[in-house]
Write a structure and sequence with these properties.
Blueprint (H helix, E strand, L loop, with lengths): L1 E8 L5 H11 L3 E5 L28 H13 L1 H7 L12 E6 L7 H4 L4 E6 L2 H9 L11 H19 L5 E4 L4 H17 L3
Parallel strand pairs: 1-3, 1-4, 2-3, 4-5
The structure holds adenosine-5'-diphosphate and beta-nicotinamide ribose monophosphate (NMN).
The site of adenosine-5'-diphosphate (ADP) has 13 residues, from α1 and α7.
Protein name: Nicotinamide riboside kinase 2
GO biological process, one term: pyridine nucleotide biosynthetic process
GO molecular function: ATP binding; metal ion binding; nicotinate riboside kinase activity; ribosylnicotinamide kinase activity
């Protein structure tokens, strides 16, 4: 069986942290990070607000991300070996791909491929605090969080909800180990025991 699991949600919600735990815990588990598909800086539009528009779907090469997912779907063991993931001989028929990113559920061609979609949230103040300690390849200019990042998060989340996308919400302020336990338990109940 092949399972694609989405770890989506707000910037600095703890997606990468949770994904690392899943990779350590699940058999034959590969990952694709949406952040790896940002377009080059000179292709990022500048908005009327003066900010580079990083937090919109158009800033990502989603066709390339979809191609990567298709390569996994075509041959998970080959994909795993190419990415240094050992294929466990006892579980040859279970393969899991974790997609991790802040705009996972806004790209229609991927939407139906998920077996389970998780969505991490943290309140505005905590998100802003975490973001202020983070250094991206392109550092945030002053005002980006309030002027662009948070408004775009709210917009895409609203669209996701209005579109009826089925997600399991996770409280990103809970301790890391508890979040990992919650997701592993949910995956076992919803997918891995029911195949
Ligand atoms: N459950 C948690 N509780 C508190 N802080 C967390 C938790 N998960 C992650 N963090 C911290 O929040 C920041 C962003 O985490 P990260 O996993 O990189 O988020 P994302 O991938 O969603 O941007 C990091 O400093 C990380 O250590
Ligand atoms: N990786 C990059 O090249 C890059 C550049 C500028 C901004 N970002 C930021 O990355 C964020 C998404 O990643 P996280 O969900 O890991 O925070 C976006 O909010 C975006 O503003 C990333």
């Amino acid at each position: 069986m092949k399972y694609i699991v989405g770890i989506g949600g707000v910037t600095n919600g703890g997606k990468t942290t949770l994904t690392s735990g899943l990779l350590r815990s699940l058999p034959n588990c590969c990952v694709v990070h949406q952040d790896d598909f940002f377009k080059p800086q000179d292709q990022i539009a500048v908005g009327k607000d003066g900010f580079k528009q990083w937090d919109v779907l158009e800033s990502l090469d989603m066709e390339a991300m979809l191609s990567t997912v298709r390569a996994w779907l075509d041959n998970p063991p080959k994909f795993a070996r190419a990415h240094g993931v050992p294929v466990q001989p006892g579980l040859p028929d279970t393969h899991i791909l974790v997609l991790e990113g802040f705009l996972l559920y806004s790209y229609k061609p991927l939407l139906d491929l998920y077996s389970r979609r998780y969505f991490l949230t943290v309140p505005y103040e905590e998100c802003k605090r975490r973001r202020s300690t983070r250094s991206y390849e392109v550092p945030d200019p002053p005002g980006l969080f309030d002027g662009h990042v948070w408004p775009m998060y709210l917009k895409y989340q609203r669209e996701m909800e209005e579109g009826g996308v089925d997600v399991v919400y996770l409280d990103g302020t809970r301790p890391r180990a508890e979040l990992l336990h919650q997701v592993l338990e949910d995956l076992h109940n919803s997918l891995l025991n029911c195949s």
